[in-house]
Amino acid sequence: MARDYYGLLGVSNGATDSEIKRAYRKLARELHPDVNPDEEAQARFKEISVAYEVLSDPEKRRIVDLGGDPLESAGAGAGGGFAGFGGLGDVFEAFFGGGATSRGPTGRVRPGSDSLLRMRLDLAECATGVTKQVTVDTAVLCDLCQGKGTHGNSTPVACDTCGGRGEIQTVQRSLLGQVMTSRPCPVCGGVGEVIPDPCNRCAGDGRVRARRDISVKIPAGVGDGMRVRLAAQGEVGPGGGPAGDLYVEVHEKPHDVFVRDGDDLHCTISVPMVDAALGTTVTVDAILDGPIDITIGAGTQPGSVTTLRGHGMPHLRSGVRGNLHAHIDVVVPSRLDHEDVELLQAFKERTKGIAEVRSTQSNNSSHGGGLFNRLRETFTGR
């Protein structure tokens, strides 16, 4: 009894070539051994591959439509007529590539890899920008052979093992016939040629490792984790191929006073309770502006924030400055002498202040330096 090739692919007898192709593609992606190692799936994959090759051939499909089996009529033997039918690799690779499909030599000259260098900068250097000399250790072009990899006037020759193809093909017999697979040549590494007389300095690679000093310009406004790209300053490729890029990753050092949040800066100012009540002026040494005066208004409450616009970090591209936020921490003295106690007692009598119990939710912003502490934890993770 003839096999139901249409049923194997799940299509009707009147299916078009494109419908048959789509059905095979869908099933092959589910059943291919690289995706589904189950033995039953592998057997199904062989069946649908045979079915597709039959139905994609007009003459063989005509035999199927007449009620015959083109494989049996072709003299297929044991194993359900699958033997001698040809390689499944050709069918599958027509869709997905690789396998037995010839790729040819890869070429000895290839682009180089990118390199990464980490640079630690303090907050002032991030704010103003800086140019620094750094030492990098990368592969550079061999100055003896200029990337050719050969010694003197010698030249590469075709690989005897692969015949210059860069790959070796092997044929295996299976129930489905001959299956051909390809792999890179182990002698030439897929290049297709070998260098019988290599350069004495680079041993045929066309490049050598060397240390060199380069100048890195860091723009103003960079932040932690940002990268500066230096084109063609990375690794030179095999065979003297074009160099990759060098990326300089900025690591920002913690500052003793300021905590950075994007383009904004935050600091905390501890103010004695008397100054908070009467008002005062505090001088802060800003990153870019030098000493600046911050006015603490009379009656300033714990947790208050004074914002100085345009005194923060410059934006990386526009140069527009962020803001400086000063978080006020009112300091209550823990030790009082006799005269201090009398003065505060007299002040208490004059104000007739009493303690008041309020909701912690409504009073959450007045817990001393708690707000700034939470900001620090948010910005620094500490």
Description:
The protein is an alpha+beta fold. The protein has helices spanning 5-9, 17-31, 39-55, 58-65, 70-73, 88-96, 123-128, 273-278, 338-351, 370-380; strands at residues 115-121, 130-141, 157-158, 167-174, 177-184, 193-194, 207-218, 227-230, 246-252, 259-261, 264-272, 280-286, 290-296, 305-308, 324-331. The strands form six sheets. Strands 10-11-15-14 form a four-stranded mixed β-sheet. A three-stranded mixed β-sheet has the order 1-9-8.
Characteristic key phrases:
10 helices, three-stranded mixed sheet, alpha+beta, single chain
Brief sketch in words of this structure:
The protein has 382 residues and is an alpha+beta fold. 25% of the residues lie in helices and 26% in strands. The chain has helices spanning 5-9, 17-31, 39-55, 58-65, 70-73, 88-96, 123-128, 273-278, 338-351, 370-380; strands at residues 115-121, 130-141, 157-158, 167-174, 177-184, 193-194, 207-218, 227-230, 246-252, 259-261, 264-272, 280-286, 290-296, 305-308, 324-331.
Outline the low-pLDDT stretches. 73-101, 362-372
C-alpha end-to-end distance: 77 Å
CA gyration radius, whole angstroms: 38 Å
Report the count of strand segments.
15
Shape: elongated
Helix-strand topology string: HHHHHHEHEEEEEEEEEEHEEEEHH
Measured as a percent range, the helix fraction is 10-25%
Major sheet strand order = 10-11-15-14
Mean pLDDT across all amino acids: 83
Amount of beta strand: 25-35%
How many alpha or pi helices? 10
Protein structure class: alpha+beta
Specify the biggest β-sheet.
Answer: 4 strands, mixed
